[in-house]
TrEMBL record:
This is Mitochondrial fission 1 protein. Gene3D superfamilies: Tetratricopeptide repeat domain. Belongs to the FIS1 family. It is found in: Mitochondrion outer membrane; Peroxisome membrane. It holds the Pfam family Fis1_TPR_N. The C-terminus is required for mitochondrial localization, while the N-terminus is necessary for mitochondrial fission.
Amino acid sequence: MEDVLDEIVSTEDLKKFEIMYNKQLQGEAVDTNIQFQYAWCLVRSKYPVDIRKGIMLLEDLFNKTGETEKRDCLYYLAIGNARIKKYPEAMKYVKAFLQLEPSNEQVQRLELLIKKKMEREGLKGMAIAGGVIVGIASVLGLGIAMAKKG
């Protein structure tokens, strides 16, 4: 399941759906399937700006589609937000999905994965903050020692 957050779309697929989407965008309306496929590719891009664009397209789709499509949008909104480390937002979408379908094992696994990533990122954040504090304390200690010496 962890690879669902690490999966990267091929450049060819992204370009193919981008071209299809942009052609329809120039017409009267964009087919929701084309918009979904393009958004699906974007949230699996290696570039955060693409992922954010995919999230915007999925949010737009969520507001104008039926229940089945809403579930798909919620799932990929959770993945997209998790990929750009917006874990609370990702969890919001997971919870919304699980309200519709509480026994969905795929989404339950995604929820656990996001929670693990949140914990890992939190621990990294604490380690970095701890390192900064130790560094500042060392510099201050050195400064105080030098001031006493002089």
